[in-house]
């Protein structure tokens, strides 16, 4: 995303209504697109001397912690816009959350777009605006990027990759391998909303629901958690594959079992109803603003209280405990145990 | 790219022959794919405790310099394999080079793949193997990643995003704005080979040529340059849009003119022949292993000598000088000046 000063000077000027191959050529049209769309909107985020790389003083990072966290995710969600968010807010929050659950303070993001020829420029504008808002809310900066255009049919509308760096606080090292029998398992609110939203938004069903995505940044909530409990064992955001997948990953990594109490699982009524109608399990539906936290048993109350004071954690609950064994099980309302296996096959493609 | 220890234990086992939607679901099939393909091949590159983020000690970085360089690029090249490289080597070298030309030592890369349902697993294996080899050659590590699958027709085969971090050496800050009239402009060898290779590889022409891509890492060459001349004004790799585009970016950023001498431009005979046949200009053809270097006039000989001692710079040349004005011009063999404008429109889509 190299912008010349003269390109900056002539902002905003973009006569095209749709993306053409020239917008990915490296030439004048690409400069104009980047200037009009990205530079004007990311104003104040991008460094002043634009080169192909962001340049970040290491002293600024070492003041905040002792390790760099580095992550990446591509976003291919279909449709691009859905109740509660869009591919832009998803791309920012998803990567912010990947950094946050490592115990890091998310700091800087990249933004790489693959655009399909023919994409309306107005769609792109809306997505970029959404990224800017999401970045501001999460307190991160988008500092560099890339734009590629593929001919019509070579991609579906718009894909975004965001990579992110953050700083891990000294003494805070959550990791699945630290989980021990006896630990408490918490979640910050109702599960399955993002997956249910995308399902409905696909318009494969003539359903009217109130469901909207839980897409939100979790770094503020993580601040509250690690302040209350620096010895937090593990955190992970429950995205693709849902809560059950994260718990299976935890169980396998730490060689433990996990037992959930079905009655303690927060699921919104509308999501529960949709799942019953379609034969889906909210435990396997994607979330985009939910994290699973594992803490030592004597810290559970403190952490729960800290989570509930944060807007993103008002509906937090203890949902189960770590046990000996190697399976994830759900104690049902009838008192029986149901094994929660890993997801086999796909529940829903292009969920994020 | 979260891998459980049990998934690690059962490497390699992958019965599927093609990519299915389940490989992007977050469930068991995705774990198996990641374990069999990425973990087994990136062995020794990935950190041992696999979480969704790489965790890098900041002390390791501050020992090497004072600023973090951070960059991203998506790769959508078509075809995936071409003489001299493939999308995998391109994705590693492209991002390594973006970091290197900032004066940084490239260190860590991410790898995010968007796969089309139906992609042969063998193709993916070959691309991953190529990334591993390229990373080893460049001395960087691929430390985290992401895999998304879109339904057939939602993307064309395989797209890769690599983001990268590197460490900028103390006292070395190349930037286009530093360029001044009088400075010398150098390039490390023949131009246009990558673009010409992709053109021929598209099989739109029944041509037999010896042309192959110049896809290569440039960080070793940059080491030689900044050691010889820490005050290097600017460096940039001449990818999309070719040499002419980089020079136009330089001219606009620094508000200077640049004058090239046509007879001093290195162009391979085969590339020149292809360009004459098709009416193309090698100055606008993409490169994937060529950088433009601008240095103070009294440093030109020293830098040229340093470049020529490195394998990636054997054919380096001084190709022109910075002048007053604001245009990039080429002094032709006939003694006339030809203006090299920015590329308008696209010369070739999906070149990288």
UniProtKB/TrEMBL annotation, chains A, B:
A UniProt-annotated Pfam family? AIRS_C
Ranges of residues in domain PurM-like N-terminal: 63-168
Q: What range(s) does the PurM-like C-terminal domain occupy?
A: 180-330
Highest taxon above the source species: Bacteria
GO BP, sorted A to Z:
protein maturation
Belongs to which family?
Belongs to the HypE family.
Q: Which PANTHER family match?
A: CARBAMOYL DEHYDRATASE HYPE, HYDROGENASE ISOENZYMES FORMATION PROTEIN HYPE
UniProt-recorded name of the protein: Hydrogenase expression/formation protein HypE
> What species was this sequence derived from?
Leptolyngbya iicbica LK
Q: What does the record give as the organism's lineage?
A: Bacteria, Bacillati, Cyanobacteriota, Cyanophyceae, Leptolyngbyales
Gene symbol here is hypE
């Amino acid at each position: 995303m190299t912008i010349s000063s003269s390109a900056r000077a002539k902002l905003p000027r973009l006569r095209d209504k749709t993306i053409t191959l020239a917008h990915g050529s490296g030439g004048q049209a690409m400069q104009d697109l980047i200037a009009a769309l990205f530079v004007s909107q990311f104003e104040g985020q991008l460094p002043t001397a634009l080169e192909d790389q962001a340049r970040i003083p290491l002293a600024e990072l070492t003041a905040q912690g002792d390790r760099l966290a580095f992550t990446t995710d591509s976003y291919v969600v279909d449709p691009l816009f859905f109740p509660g968010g869009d591919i832009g807010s998803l791309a920012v929050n998803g990567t912010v959350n990947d950094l946050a659950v490592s115990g890091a303070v998310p700091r800087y993001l990249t933004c790489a777009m693959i655009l399909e020829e023919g994409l309306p420029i107005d769609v792109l504008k809306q997505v970029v605006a959404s990224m800017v808002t999401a970045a501001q809310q999460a307190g991160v900066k988008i500092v560099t990027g890339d734009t590629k255009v593929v001919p019509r049919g070579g991609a579906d509308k718009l894909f975004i990759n965001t990579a992110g760096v953050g700083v891990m606080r000294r003494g805070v090292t959550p990791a699945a391998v630290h989980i021990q029998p006896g630990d408490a398992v918490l979640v910050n609110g109702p599960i399955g909303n993002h997956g249910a939203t995308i399902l409905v938004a696909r318009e494969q069903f003539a359903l009217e629901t109130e469901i909207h995505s839980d897409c939100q940044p979790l770094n503020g909530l993580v601040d509250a958690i690690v302040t209350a409990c620096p010895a937090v064992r593990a955190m992970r955001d429950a995205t693709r594959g849902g809560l059950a997948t994260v718990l299976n990953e935890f169980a396998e990594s730490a060689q433990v079992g996990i037992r959930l109490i079905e009655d303690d699982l927060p699921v919104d009524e509308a999501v529960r109803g949709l799942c019953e109608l379609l034969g889906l399990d909210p435990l396997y539906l994607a979330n985009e603003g939910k994290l699973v936290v594992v803490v030592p048993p004597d810290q559970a109350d403190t952490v729960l209280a800290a989570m509930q004071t944060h807007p993103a954690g008002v509906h937090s609950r203890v949902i189960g405990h770590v046990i000996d064994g190697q399976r994830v099980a759900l104690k049902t309302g009838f008192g029986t145990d149901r094994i929660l296996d890993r997801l086999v096959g796909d529940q829903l493609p292009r969920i994020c």
